[in-house]
Amino acid sequence: MHITTDESKVDFVSFDAVYPSVGFHRGTSITYPDDYIEKNFGPGVFGFFAFHENELIGVARILSDDCVCAHVAEICVHRNWQRKGVGSALMKAVVNRFSGLAIYAASLVGQEVFFAKMGVVPQPLAIACGWAPDGADWVERGADK
Questions:
Q1: Which of the four CATH numbers 3.30.565.10, 3.40.630.30, 3.40.605.10, 3.10.20.30 does domain 2-143 have?
Q2: Which of 22, 25, 55, 143 is the 20 to 30 A CA-CA neighbour of 108?
Q3: Which segments in the chain show pLDDT lower than 50?
Q4: According to the model, what pLDDT value does residue 29 have?
Q5: Four-point Cα dihedral 5, 94, 88, 32, nearest 10
Q6: Burial letters 101-116, b for 16+ CB under 10 A, else e
Q7: Is there a contact between 32 and 20 (Cβ–Cβ < 8 Å)?
């Protein structure tokens, strides 16, 4: 496995294979623009890409001003590669790159242990709120709590 920050190494088909494998998607009514990868990793957005040989197996997207803080938008590892150190390797690369900044992450329930192992610990006064297009069920599940 190797990790790169060069988004030119990533094509849409490879990228699109990772996210839906774990249930991350934008809904069926959304069309993807031709410059989807470029838009996902534009100014202020940093990508970390894990490859096994030539196969994209994991992605981390970080939103940062590169001055004060960095926010982990998501770490997504293809279902076939989970629990094999890919997410940890991506997060270590993120922590190394942004080591002088405050690093924040909004976590899915149950994933906060993963972030805590990486040194990004739950904050008692923080809360994450969200909205998703096309009726994604994670929004409705969270609204009941």
A1: 3.40.630.30
A2: 55
A3: 138-139, 142-145
A4: 60
A5: -50
A6: bebbbbbeeeeeebbe
A7: no
